[in-house]
Amino acid sequence: MDPSRPVRRSGEEDVVSFDLSVSDVELYEAARRLLFTAHHTENHRVAAAMRGESGAIYLGLHIGSKRLNVCAESSALANARMAQEPSIHSVVAVSMDGDGEPQVTNPCGLCRELLRTYGSETSVLIDAEGDVGKIRIKDLLPYPWMRAAETEWDTRPPRMEESVS
């Protein structure tokens, strides 16, 4: 880990933690095994593993074609929800590197939004510039997409600050 890399926000604790648990490594290994089993350069590029509140692990696989792709995280989430899992504790996605080795990969914007919808406290294992760390999904996506009617606040119109002469 590069100690010069910022991992703090002003006045907050570490946003990214590099203190991984046995549970985190187990989740990575589950996704890694799935990717080795099912990898295909076009149709199955990413595998995901998700731990539910119950402790159960749910797997997901990227499925794709020339025109349509479904992310591995979304299929893992669908599996968890079908199993009646009440909430998601942690998640990791892996993709193959240039040498054919599974590596942690960060969730795309759509998956960040999807995961945040199902729990803002979910931990996500991420590639933090070469080191694997974990971060809460609400810190990875601090301002989620919402319709104006879904917020708990009223947003003021944009305005320019008046300059003091």
What's the pLDDT, averaged over the residues?
86
Structural class: alpha+beta
CA radius of gyration: 18 Å
Low-confidence spans? 1-12
Helix content: 10-25%
Number of helices: 4
Would you list the SSEs in sequence order as H and E?
A: HEEEEHEEHEEH
Residue fraction in strands: 15-25%
Report the span from N to C terminus: 47 Å
Q: Compute the number of strand runs.
A: 8
C-alpha geometry? globular
The largest sheet is: 6 strands, mixed
Describe the protein.
There is one protein chain. The radius of gyration is 18 Å and the shape is globular. 31% of the residues are buried. It has helices spanning 22-38, 72-82, 109-117, 137-140; strands spanning 46-52, 57-61, 63-64, 69-70, 88-96, 102-105, 123-128, 131-136. Strand 5 and strand 6 (102-105) form a beta hairpin. The strands form two sheets. Strands 1, 2, 5, 6, 7 and 8 form a six-stranded mixed β-sheet that branches. By secondary structure, the chain is of the alpha+beta class. Mean pLDDT is 86; it is low at 1-12. Helices cover 25% and strands 25% of the residues. The chain starts with 21 loop residues before the first helix and ends in a 25-residue tail after the last helix. The chain has four helices and eight strands, in the order αββββαββαββα.
